[in-house]
Amino acid sequence: MSQQDGDGYKPVLRTSKIWSPEVIEDIQLKAQLGRYRMQGFSTHRRVPTFDDLTFVPCGLSRVALEGYRERCETRTVLGTRFARKPIELKLPITISGMSYGALSKTAKTALGTAATRLGISTTTGDGGMLWEERQASHLMVYQVLPSRYGFNPDHLKMADAIEIVIGQGAKPGTGGVLLGSKVSEVIANQRTLPPGVDQRSPVRHPDFIGPDDLQIKIEELREATDWEKPIYVKLGASRVADDIKLAVKAKCDVIVLDGLEGATGASPDVLLDHTGIPTMSAVCEAVRALDDMKVLGEVQLIVSGGIKNGVDAAKALALGADAVSIGTAALIALNCNAPLYIEDYHKLGVEPGSCHHCHTGRCPVGVTTQDPELESRLKLDEAADRVFNFVQSMAMELQMFARACGKSNVHHLEAEDLRALTLEASIITGIPLAGTETALTPDAIADRVIKALDQRARKHPNGKARH
Amino acid sequence: MCGIAGVFYKGPEPYGPLGATLRDMCQELFRRGTDSVGFALYGEPAPDTYFVRVDLGAARTADGDGHAVADAAAQLVNVRDFKSTGHNVRLEVDSDAGGKLADRIEDEVEGARVFSIGRSMEIIKDLGAADDVEQVYHLGGYEGSHGIGHTRMATESRVDIAHSHPFWARPFPDIAVVHNGTITNYHKLRRRLELKGHHFSTGNDSEVIAVYIADRLENGDSMQQALEASVDDLDGTFAYVVSTKDGIGLARDQFAMKPLLFAEDDELVVLASEECAIRRVLRDPQLVPRELQAREVRSWLRS
Amino acid sequence: MAQVVTEPAVLDAEGLSIRAINQQIKQLLADGVTDIEVRNPVGQHCLAVALKTTARIHFRGSVGWYAAGMNDGAHVIIDGNCGWGLAECQMGGRVEVMGNAGSGTSVSIRGGLVFVRGDCGARAGISMKGGTLVIGGSAGYLSGFMMQRGTIIICGDAADGLGDSMYEGTIYVGGRVAAYGADAVEKPVTDADRALLRQSLQELAIDADRIPFKKVESGRRLWNFSKKEPELWRSAL
Fold first, then answer.
1. Contact call for A148 and C108, based on CB within 8 A
2. What is the pTM of this model?
3. What is the CATH number of domain A50-420?
4. Deepest in the core among A54, A123, A167, A422, taking most CB within 10 A?
């Protein structure tokens, strides 16, 4: 009997898990392109995240604080180790480095405006300082990147802190990219490049190579700015323990750690999916490393990469971070993936809600474009309002969780306020699985076993086991 | 990531104030490596004599335990003399028991680690800076023909004395290495060398360089040939100095990632990661240090 | 009218920390001193960084890494060697080294002149964005890598990877080139080039006409990705 005939017989499409439609499309696209495929945004794959943890707030054993009434401090100081003028933030939230070039001028200015109202900092990016950002943003962190595009010592001296970028979470171990369609005359001029080139940034800094060199470089930056400004070292979360120890030995003030979920304006997609470790794993490894080096608290830790709300911030702080940094979340607040100008999303082959085409320069909502017409769709004041509102909501969520756990200061959140909901999360974080008492780490299990053996020995003092 | 240094006395005086010179250079390189400091010093060899340096770990003082080490050694060889300094024991023996002496000492004395065995080489290494180590080991008084030094900033392996440089190419007498950089294919290289029968004391990538060079020399390569082969076989970043009883050899990786300069006149050769270390011991403005180029190897050997 | 000759202010750096040396230099500049001589720098790092001045600072001896880094107008002379990152990210001014320089000389400079009479280590002029780098001797591995603008004049030889991935800018080489980098191509030397070389080198007491300079510029094939040149892109991407 033929499988094609029959009344109303509909064959079930069997798709291979290995050679899935996505894989087939990928290979066929590369057969045309002759190179790796590029995308913006962040990884599409699923990894262990903060969502695999839950809080255990107060009940009878501890006393909760009244929401909206009893004080919950959010003040955060960064750069106390060596800088003469540490930075004081009103919230433990910062806006991470995104370049003027990857972002439109309006987007950068809106972020700066919102940050000033919130009392937090913004960060320049791989292209140098935008004058409008410095004007708008009350606290600006100046990045020193391998490319040194737009690097200017005057801008360095105008900054409130300096961030040496070793790597970013989206693609640790590789350099930045800005495709030709976004290298406008203005951007090209700032970066000293011919307009329209597919700009590649080097992965390594040109004048230092290892952490021993980095130490001298940090000293140079301190001498250049009279030891005033905190020096951050930004790392893509990869070999976290080793890298953090070295950054500490190189005498930085603050570590910025960007996890696998970190996004970018443009990257080969295979890098987004297959390099780096998730933010939650990275925080845990980082805190252990800082503890080993005996600088926990002395060297502050900012984490980024997929931070999407205040509860992520709360969990990151509970695990030991001093602050979180948002990139994608801030862009989404600006209007990234908003359901507007839908025909333009269609032209890119996507729908709002699943657009990751920042690299094309055709952002329908004017956030990641240099096209003046598209950029005009982003209205500065409204955009700044949206970012302000979003970060306000993060702050309220963060304080809400802190109060629920009985803390009058968000920095008093602890790992003990959490429980794990999955096996991986428990092993990664060292937090017990909900409903159990023991973390699933070798040390914790060994302790339990020793305790159990002790108890058994006490029950059978002559040393003979019952079994 | 670290600082490295080396000295070679060409003559007419084949010996000089080796200990003080290397100590001062390494003190200047302290910034590059604050975790620990180490030296391989080559003094005047005595007939039928091997020098053995054993460390008992920072927790124990060597008095009393110097005897335990000497007794263990005496099971295989004749121990002519031994002396304890801090947690370090120095022995003078008449043989290395065909390469078995180090294992015997470590098997018999708990916590003992043999840092070096050589006809003229002695390895001293400890946590802290060169000036701290001077207090205990009195390097200032050490006369020698050549030597290498190192200040360590630990990258991947632990900060303890055993993982500090110089690494002895155990059990080959008189061969040691100091290295700045990270060898990125060392697991593979190590497995290859283990298959040939070599052993490793640590998980440190720099130790692989020592054993690699020793293996090449044992198989008939000249120092120059061994250095040249290493530039192709080692992957990653490196500027390293290897020392044998005859002299020293340097090599730099193909991308010139880690710094190494040397200065040479008729009487001596001095090398270091940074010029400030060279200037600490050589103030003559006519002597111009030069940076080793990418893939460049050099050696200075007696005889 | 009698000429007033002022003696330079002398600063003895022996035994001083990097911070102290720089603070004293800055104090002298703030006091209006325009000619400073620093003795015994003994290879110290990070000296004379980020100075916004037209003063002259003369180091009698070798300096370490990042000497005159982020220089903005000063005339810095070094009677000796320097380490890595000489005059990195210089905005303008003039830095002259009489000896040899380490790696990363004049990284990312935007303007002014950097002159090394001896040899430069690897990555000389990497990511340059303007200005002129003159090397009296030879240049090391990957010199001129990702150069964007400006001029590099190498009187001696150049090692592997010269001008790899250059965007724009011009490199002149007088000696042998071990190997050109990706997309670095030789172009004919014109009369205008020769005039530029003469002008640039004359004040440095180098006779440009006695050196058989070649000109190296970007082939521009790496400006935008093209699948028609797979070999080139495989090495570049």
1. yes
2. 0.89
3. 3.20.20.70
4. A123
